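quick one, two chains, predict together pls
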Amino acid sequence: MTTQLSDPVPATAGGRPPRRRRDRRPPWEEPPTPLGVFGKGVVLTLLVAAVLVPLWAVLVTSLASRETIDAAGGMVLVPREVDPSAYVTIFNGGQITRAVWVSTVVTVVGTTVSLVLTVLAAYGLSRPGSVGHRGLLFFFLLTFLVFPGLVPSYLVVTGLGLKDSLWSLILPSAISVFNLVVVRAFFMGVPGELLDSARIDGAGELRILTRIVLPLSKAVVAVVGLFYAVGYWNAYFNSVLYLDDNDKFPIQRVLQSYILAGQSPSVSGAAVSLPGVTAYPPTLAVKMAVVVVTVVPAVLVYPFVQRHFTKGVITGAVKG
Amino acid sequence: MSAAPGTARRARPQAARPRSQPRARPRAGLRARLRRDWPLLAMTAPAAALLLVFHYLPTLGNVIAFQDYNPFVGDDPVEAFLHSEWIGFGNFEALFTDPLFWDAVRNTLTITAFQIVFFFPLPILLAILLHSLVSGRVRGFVQSVVYLPHFFSWVLVVTFFVQMLGGAGLLAQRMREAGLRPWDVMTNPDTFIVLVTAESVWKDVGWGAIVFLAALAAIDPHLYEAAAADGAGRWRRLWHITLPGLRPVIVLLLIMRLGDALSVGFEQFILQREAVGRDAAEVLDTFVYHQAIATQQWGLGAAAGLFKAVVGLILIVAANKLAHRLGEQGVYSRS
């Protein structure tokens, strides 16, 4: 096994130059058949619609008035007016406001902790030949092979007194070795001469990391940061395991109890409210507003890091 | 090596040695190397400590599978662990004679097989389709849109499906208006396997295509040109150039999926288990959760978890061996 867990990085470090878009059909290629063009168009349209129509319907319904929703008999596809009352309701304090706040705090703190520790460890592991390098690398990579069971993990987290603490949503999942390997691969691509010259000038390791290596690695740090942030924002199950206190529920947990918990045969989508939150069931518009609030962060950060995806995904997924 | 010009010796003589060149390992004593490398160790330590506590400690904690673990014999889990009775393979005997456990195993394997047939090829097809688009703008737009659901949580994905296809969703609404009898796929156990696969496809088909797109971009265009000159039509080029070019990646990912056969996702099933019932939605992971934490049969749950971990490890190692056998590079990673 030792040999199989050998250092996966060198193969990835260079990376392929970004693919160039060819906007013209090469001369040797036969002209497209009408049927082919039509087929592709239909498939692509369906694909895009499958993603955008649900998003659109949720957004429009969240902004619809009660009358419009009643007239449509449920989800609304055609906007009649913009009625922000659902958003006023959920941001007026109470469970959802609190949940958004909790999720924001967990995401910001968690991403910071994860990113700092990942970058430090990735740098610490980026120097083959340093003391304990092989052993430490093995220690990190072995996590891909052996897994803690759910039960012992639960016992460790509760045994540390983290039950009902927001740290239980952060610490157990703080380090993704997958992300760490990606960052490390990038660090190892930084030319050694650069580091040497800094060292000769008397810079310590921390200084080399922050002044030289990190500025050269902004892209990978951004992508890994996004992965961590999305992970924290989307985390649902840890809160089921470790949190009993309604006031500490993150947004995913609240969304689940608003929309899915009341789902039962034949009356799915029936209104259900969290105990002690609202005396009356939330309206469809309010539910959809919660969905929108849960979606928005992902949609907002997405464009900024999208162009770096390929690099991150390929480095990690294929050559792990 | 001798790369370092002997200038600028600092207080720590060894420090001037270029460390970025791996093989040049002079016989510096361990103390000297420690003095040189301790910042690196210190930087690695916090992450290593977290893994030790939250990954390796629970991995060792799997030994409670051999205990009649009782959380009430101590004030905290550690004490309870020390005072719980060791019962050998008792939990495993109970587990292997539990029909519910075998139901969960069967569901898991059925869903894995189903998804390998009906989900696995889709990102490949999507990548080929996207790659064939001439207009970079259209391709960019479609890519942006189809990657997006990957960033949604399972709660959101299931929510979208409920609101679109559920009993009170958009589709049912429209069908009612049209005078048809709506069906509710969200609560139907018979079609559950199709539903979860559809959800996985919706969430990850675009994301899965990225890897294949990169592999497609790496295929030498001259191959296509030469084949075309030799009279190969588009389908023959697809068969003789594109697919062989993708083969390494396909084999690799397929093997990884096989190695991960006992995992089909957890939150997705926990979220829908109530709606469709246990018979269809109980997979190994949800079984562990319900045995241990929901019904407090800790030992049994831990035994099921350990079973999954051990079989999973065997599968991964076997899959990797298979990859080597097929001449592919072995991997260890969660895709």
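Confidence is low (pLDDT under 50) at residues 1-19, 263-280, 316-320 of chain A.
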